[in-house]
Amino acid sequence: MAKKSKMTLGHFVMHVRDVERMVDFYSNVVGLTVTDRGTVTEAELPMIFMSADPAEHHQFVIVGGRPEDNNFQLNHHLALRMESLDDLRALHQRAETAGGMEDLRCMTHGNAWSVYFNDPEANALECYVRTPWHVAQPNIRPIDLSQSDEEIRAETEEYCRSENHFMSVAERRAEMTAMMGQAD
Description:
The protein is of the alpha+beta class. It contains five helices and eleven strands, in the order E-H-E-E-E-H-E-H-E-E-E-E-E-H-E-H. It has two domains: about 10-75, 2,3-Dihydroxybiphenyl 1,2-Dioxygenase, domain 1 (Roll), CATH 3.10.180; about 75-184, 2,3-Dihydroxybiphenyl 1,2-Dioxygenase, domain 1. Helices cover about 30% and strands about 30% of the residues.
């Protein structure tokens, strides 16, 4: 078996109708920073680059114009990793305050605590914090972000330990390294 290349997710591109409304939403509700602006040369469509990590020029790019109008492909799920449960709670509060979030859900996959909701143009978002555990996926169940960090951690760990393929993140990383034919 040939050695596979290491890959990481670099960014996500989303096509939108109202560029400035979406930039405002992703800046003020989600908390991303505009790092650059430009245009798609062939179509003269605006491109706005955004990131939450100073080490990453862009993790997310907004492009004016929807795929049905411009023959583009669109992935309808953007996942943004956050640092802490407090960050996740703050985002949840901003999303509630912004209004129009009919499908705001707090869930765990065992390996992450997530808040799901749609942006103003109904693009799906997941903002998440990693846990120290791994369980077989797909796996999803509701969580209550009004609980303390300790309560959420204890409840999630208990749940994870009852699930198939429970292990630590370090054990899973070693398993995946071997699975992908890569050395540590």
